[in-house]
Write a structure and sequence with these properties.
The chain is an alpha/beta fold. The protein folds into 2 domains: 5-206, 2-enoyl-CoA Hydratase, Chain A, domain 1, CATH 3.90.226; 210-257, Lyase 2-enoyl-coa Hydratase, Chain  A, domain 2. 49% of the residues lie in helices and 16% in strands. The protein contains 12 helices and 10 strands. The chain has helices spanning 30-45, 67-76, 81-90, 94-100, 117-123, 151-159, 161-170, 176-181, 194-206, 210-222, 228-243, 246-257; strands spanning 5-10, 13-18, 51-56, 60-62, 106-110, 113-115, 127-131, 135-137, 173-175, 187-189. The strands form 2 sheets. It has a 6-stranded mixed β-sheet, sandwiched between helices. The protein has a 4-stranded mixed β-sheet with strand order 4-6-8-9. β1 and β2 (13-18) form a beta hairpin.
Length: 265
């Protein structure tokens, strides 16, 4: 039974809630990675899902790593360098691979503090919406650590290299307004409106055909690191599939008939 991640589905929209509010939704063990990876696998298997919302219970999105547990591990002396490397590779590093590579669009509804790994967790999503109470920090340097969960790859893609370097080298916390200015989030809303806004956006996304959404997301992802000619070739292949899909025929017919389309996938 899940103890950290709450999985709720309403039609084509899945909401994943980090559910450890007593410690500000900190990530504390291998089991957390297991739950997030399994949730992503469940979403991938379910072709009815067209959008995912990720948020946090309580007042924080995620405080990142559990510093108290870090202290306990240090005091015990049980984990040497090789053991720590193994824990990262089999634990938290499975999360960006699963969440970032989800086929369906993802929205981070950042309700409060997103610190360290919590900031990177938000960056693993395609779209980020922030409550006015949200705060962000790439704060690993404050603990004499490095971003061990992919933040050095994720954050520059969200805010650009200069701002990412500023955040990572200082560890400073930025508020929701600054996150909006630097492009870390696409909008800031009152706290009480956060899930309403995220849900409305998810509904607008989910109103579109699922196969086309998944292929569009894949092209956007590939476009971040591949050559233009390679992406064009991939786009042609995907477009050939899209042209023969029943939902494309339905969309064209609905447009010509001046009616709302009814998509099957």
């Amino acid at each position: 039974m899940n103890t950290f991640l709450r999985y709720e589905q309403d039609g084509p929209i899945v909401t994943l809630t980090l559910n450890r509010p007593d410690i500000r939704n900190a990530l504390i063990g291998l089991e957390d990675g297991d739950e997030i990876v399994e949730a992503c696998a469940r979403i991938t298997r379910d072709m009815s899902v067209r959008a995912v919302i990720l948020t946090g219970a309580g007042t924080a999105f995620s405080a990142g790593g559990d510093i108290k547990r870090m202290g306990e591990v240090m005091a015990s002396g049980d984990s040497g360098p090789s053991g720590t490397r193994h824990v990262y590779r089999t634990g938290i590093q499975r999360i960006p691979l699963a969440l970032y590579n989800l086929e369906v669009p993802t929205i981070a509804a950042v309700n409060g503090a997103a610190i360290g790994a919590g900031c990177d967790l938000a960056c693993m999503c395609d779209i980020r919406i922030a409550s006015e109470h949200a705060r962000f920090a790439e704060s690993f340097i404050k603990l004499s650590l490095v971003p061990g969960d992919g933040g050095a790859w994720l954050l520059p893609r969200a805010v650009g290299m200069s701002k990412a370097c500023e955040m990572a080298f200082t560890g400073d916390t930025i508020d929701a307004a600054e996150a909006l200015r630097c492009g870390l989030v696409s909008r800031v809303v009152p706290p009480e409106a956060l899930l309403v806004e995220a849900g409305a956006l998810a509904q607008r996304i989910a109103a579109n055909p699922g196969q086309a959404l998944r292929m569009t997301k894949r092209l956007l992802r590939e476009g971040q690191h591949t050559r233009l000619d390679t992406l064009l070739e991939m786009s042609a292949g995907f477009q050939a599939l899209a042209h023969t899909a029943p939902d494309h025929h339905e969309a064209v017919d609905a447009f010509l008939s001046k009616r709302k389309p009814v998509f099957s996938q």
